[in-house]
Amino acid sequence: MTRIWFNHWFRTAYCLIELMKQTDADQLYIIGSNRTEESPIKLQCDEWYHEEDIPEEKYAEYCLAFCRAHNVDVFVPYRYMAKIAAAREKFEELGVTLICETAEMIELLEDKAAAYERFSKAGINVPEYRVVSTAAQFEAAYAELNEKYDKLCIKCVNDKGGQSFRIITETKDEYTQLMYYPTFSIGYDSLNRILNNKGTFKPMMLMPLLNTPEVEVSADCFDCVGKRIIIPRFKYSGHVEKIIFDSEIIGMVNKVIDIVSPKYICDVQFRFLNGTPYLLEVNARMSGGLPLSCAAAGVNIPALALKKALGKAITPEDYSGFTAEEKTISFVEVPAADRHAL
Question: Which residues contact 268 (CB under 8 A, 6 or more apart)?
Answer without folding.
Answer: 218, 219, 221, 252, 253, 256, 257, 279, 282
